[in-house]
Design goal:
The chain has helices spanning 2-23, 27-39, 43-46, 50-63, 71-79, 98-102, 114-131, 136-141, 146-165, 231-235, 293-314, 399-410, 418-434, 444-470, 474-477; strands at residues 174-176, 179-181, 189-191, 210-213, 225-229, 269-273, 288-292, 318-325, 335-342, 351-357, 363-365, 372-374. It is of the alpha+beta class and 481 residues long. Helix 4 (50-63) packs across helix 5 (71-79), helix 4 packs antiparallel against helix 7 and helix 13 packs antiparallel against helix 14. The chain is built from 15 helices and twelve strands. The radius of gyration is 26 Å and the shape is elongated. A hairpin with an 8-residue loop joins strand 9 (335-342) and strand 10 (351-357). The strands form four sheets. Strands 3-10-9-8-5-4 form a six-stranded antiparallel β-sheet. Strands 1-2 form a two-stranded antiparallel sheet. The chain folds into two domains: 19-166 and 379-477, no CATH class; 178-374, Extracellular Endonuclease, subunit A (Extracellular Endonuclease, Chain A, 3-Layer(aba) Sandwich), CATH 3.40.570.10. The termini are far apart.
């Protein structure tokens, strides 16, 4: 009985710790995205700037602080003589309230902590007013309106956007053949080497069909798979063999993510073929990697089907190589490089060189072990500001609408410029398409993944245009020359 009671207590402790983690915002993730929105390509060079550190510290206290954390941020802002910084108790909220309190509109009043929430906004406004020169009266008295308030709101809404993206870009950057592949940004695959495969001239003369796999490495990981795929290869494909007993490196298929992973049941991982079954690949450990459903379905299958369709329609051969890419000794593959070249027509029919990311939007992957957990702290949350909503209005707002309001105030003097017009046109297109997601017959997971793509597109627009517009603003140049 005593052992059972101890086990129960331990289980409850673990459950509570998991709940707290799920409700916490990711400070590093937020800081990465915020600096990119403010500075674009210069983000990394600005990360150590004292003014940037002040803004990020204040944003943490406004949007991420919970459960008596953040005293170091308060001390830092006081050290830099930011006015009106209260004691931690005047800002503190419980972690269970954080999502609703800090993922709503800038003006929202959370009934459970109205005074503390107002104090959190004041800290951010006062810090913004300390960092920038908005003019004599604003500098002297502070401002809850105008550009000072709208810049604070820009930071606040960018933080919410970063939580919707639910991804740490540094995790998905990887070097391939000595070149850094960009981090995942909403597209399942990215082109390499101008989309040109690196097959040798001799390999391009092959016309005899074959499929070869490398042996497992010393860590039990699959290696390069290479083949010359022809019509005889496709015609010899038989039934799939049972793979249940095969556990590729990084296999940890115990977690389900209903509404996020597009499969039934919604298990995260698939046993992904390097050479697809339909292209002659076998159900063997040397031909399998642990990949997310997203990698398999959205990343690899479209390219595999392109190759199969071409061979069936022409009777020609395709050189096909799949290279699993691991970082260091990681058990879980970071992604796979796919290369293809149609031989008889010298690449006119099929020619690509792409990297497919082993990611699952909304899920955090531990590439060292294959372990995983929910990363999207907003998933399933009620009473928060949605990224996009059908028929958005002031009485039915979404993040895009509220951000637009503050962008208009912030860049009021640049409304007639080509830069501002281009930004708003692109945002309008994204908003129109994103607000229609979920009304086209998609299931919940399909809608979730589609919305994630629009969130990334929106982020790309902000980090492209906002830095250009800020560089033209006197207040911004007062701090960042």
């Amino acid at each position: 009985m005593k052992k059972r009671w101890s086990a129960f207590i331990l289980a409850m402790v673990l459950l509570l710790s998991i709940s707290n983690t799920a409700l916490a915002c990711d400070e590093q993730q937020t800081n990465t995205y915020i600096t990119q929105i403010l500075f674009g390509d210069r983000a990394q060079s600005k990360s150590s700037d004292e003014n940037v550190k002040m803004l990020l510290a204040a944003l943490y206290l406004c949007s991420e602080q919970a459960d008596n954390q953040g005293q170091d941020k308060i001390d830092y802002l006081k050290q830099h003589k930011v006015s009106g910084i209260p004691a931690l108790a005047s800002l503190n909220i419980k972690g269970t309230y954080l999502i609703e309190c800090a993922h709503n509109t800038w003006e929202y009043e959370y009934s459970g902590a109205k005074k503390n929430q107002a104090s959190r906004r004041t800290v951010l406004r006062n810090t913004v007013n300390k960092v920038f020169d908005f003019g004599f009266f604003s500098n002297l008295f502070g401002s809850s309106t105008g550009k000072c308030d709208s810049f604070a709101a820009l930071l606040y809404y960018s933080h919410i956007l970063s939580d919707y993206l639910a991804d740490d870009p540094s995790e998905t950057e990887i070097a391939i053949n000595g070149r850094l592949t960009p981090a995942y940004s909403g597209q399942a695959a990215t082109t390499l080497n101008g989309n040109q495969p690196s097959f040798t001239a001799k390999e391009k003369e092959l016309t005899e069909s074959f499929v070869r796999n490398s042996p497992l490495d010393s860590l039990g990981r699959a290696g390069v798979a290479f083949g010359c795929i022809g019509p005889d290869t496709l015609s010899s494909v038989g039934d799939r063999e049972n793979m249940v007993g095969i556990k590729p490196s990084g296999w940890s298929n115990f977690n389900r993510y209903d509404g996020i992973v597009n499969s039934q049941p919604a298990y995260l991982y698939n046993r992904c073929h390097l050479i697809a079954h339909q292209l002659g690949g076998k159900e063997e450990e040397i031909n399998l990697v642990t990949g997310t459903r997203y990698l398999n379905e959205t990343g690899m299958i479209p390219f595999e089907e392109e190759v199969a369709r071409y061979i069936k329609s022409t009777g020609n051969h395709v050189l096909y190589r799949v290279t699993p890419v691991f970082k260091g000794d990681n058990k879980l593959v970071s992604g796979v490089q796919l290369e293809a070249f149609s031989i008889e027509d010298k690449g006119q029919g099929v020619c690509f060189n792409v990297f497919c990311y082993n990611v699952q939007p909304g899920v955090d992957l531990n590439y060292i072990t294959g372990d995983n957990e929910l990363a999207d702290t907003t998933f399933g949350a009620e009473n928060i500001l949605p990224f996009a909503v059908y028929n958005a209005s002031e009485t039915n707002p979404d993040l895009i609408l509220k951000m637009n309001k503050h962008l208009a105030i912030l860049f009021a003097d640049q409304k007639n410029t080509g830069t501002y017009t281009s930004m708003m046109n692109r945002i309008s297109t994204i908003a129109s398409e994103a607000r229609a997601v979920g009304y086209k017959g998609e299931n919940a997971a399909q809608a979730y993944i589609a919305l994630k793509q629009y969130q990334y597109k929106y982020f790309e627009v902000l980090k492209t245009y906002v830095p250009l517009l800020l560089e033209k603003e006197d207040f911004f140049r007062s701090a960042f020359k």
